[in-house]
Amino acid sequence: MSVILSVAGNDLRHLVRSRVALTGLILVALLTFAAALTSKAYQADQAALRERLQHSADRDFEAQPNRHPHRVVHFGHFAVRPASGLAAMDPGVEAYTGNMIFLEGHRQNSANFGDARQSSLLVRFGQLSPALVLQVIAPLLLVFIGAGMVAGERERGTLRQSLLAGVSGGALVAGKGLALGVAALIISAPAFALLFWLGASGGARLSAVVLSAGGYVAYLAFWTVLIVGVSAVARRSRSALIALVGAWTVTVVLAPRVAPEIAAALAPLPTRVETDIAVQRDLRAMGDSHNPNDPYFAAFKRKTLQAYGVARVEDLPVNYRGLLAVEGEKLTSGLFNRYSNQAFAAMETQGRVMDALAVISPTVAIRRLSMTLAETDLFAYRRFLEQAEAYRYDLVQRLNRLQATAVTAADDAAKSNDSAAEARSRISADHWRNMPRFDPARPSEADVMGRALPALLALLLWLAAGALFMARAGRRLNRSAA
């Protein structure tokens, strides 16, 4: 162990004396610190903004005057997505997905106001975040300062001297790996500080913080052992550098771009235009509640009259128009849910494909792990959409039932021509002031951990493979000295 520490200490001294390596370490560490600081400030601002928007939407909805319930249905409401506690570490897909949905009767609207659509074009190329620095920039810096750790000694002739002096190849690569690992920790220290501050302040679950930190340690450790292993088997520093830059390009740049395309090809999603056309086609075929001869609603009318034991709509103890609104919303919501479930099923398949494709790149694995634990992945977005739709359906049906029970059929029919009937069809605003507010629930801790597990296992497999490669490179050094 003392030999390993001695080798590591010697290499760290070389790194400190090297102006290029030291400057690179300082600059990337400062970049990580700036990313952590700006991302935390931005996400705090976003969280406060979303809270204000939801409060404003609730206030405007409750401030409506006395009016007909169906007008409240079309007045609508807003559901705002709460900010994630770990979004400051990894904003995930939040810049590209919407954060607010307009809720109204007879429609399922998509989420709007994603940051990439409102901000400058730079946001579309990736928001500066600690996750981006650790996933992309940190490995590249480690490649440049570590590619010549062993190969450089071979070129200078000092490697053979160390091996003949009794230093084993395994101890040599372990010491150099330890030194490079210290450099990686220096780079990532601000990001890890942000992670644990978020956990300590209650902004994120401690289990997610610990697992996320462990994932990034494993990711940087993989690059550390890979760099030292390649440097140990390469004849020249230049050859090691070229090979490692190529590996970085493939695993960090190319694979994360190709993997989603593969997933989309294996589980294609219908376009928005195709879905809208299909929904409108099915809506026309579903039935028309305004047509007395429509087969579906004619049958619904007979069933309703039979249930209440009356012969005419006028004899019903409730407003039949309200019952029609309840049934119509039930039909249209069922149709919308069917198409959205099909889209979500395709997304879920794509997610499984991405989990499988983590074996082609550790960067794909760490991105999946990081976004899942930060609750900024597509699954978290889907959960928001589903909870918003459940709230919308409940709200609209409450208002439809008010039309059926709080507005008489006579006043409802005459309100367009009789001002007195129109006034009586307006019910008290206390009804919408007492409506439940949108309060989405977070996924359970077990659910988040379960979805993060495949990516974590893939990352650990990459680390084990890299450690095995470095160990074999160390044994090869022993044979070369013999």
UniProtKB/TrEMBL annotation:
The keyword Protease does not apply. The keyword Ribonucleoprotein does not apply. Pfam families: DUF3526. InterPro entries: DUF3526 (IPR021913). Keywords: Membrane, Transmembrane, Transmembrane helix. The chain crosses the membrane at residues 20-42, 132-151, 163-196, 216-234, 452-471. This is DUF3526 domain-containing protein.
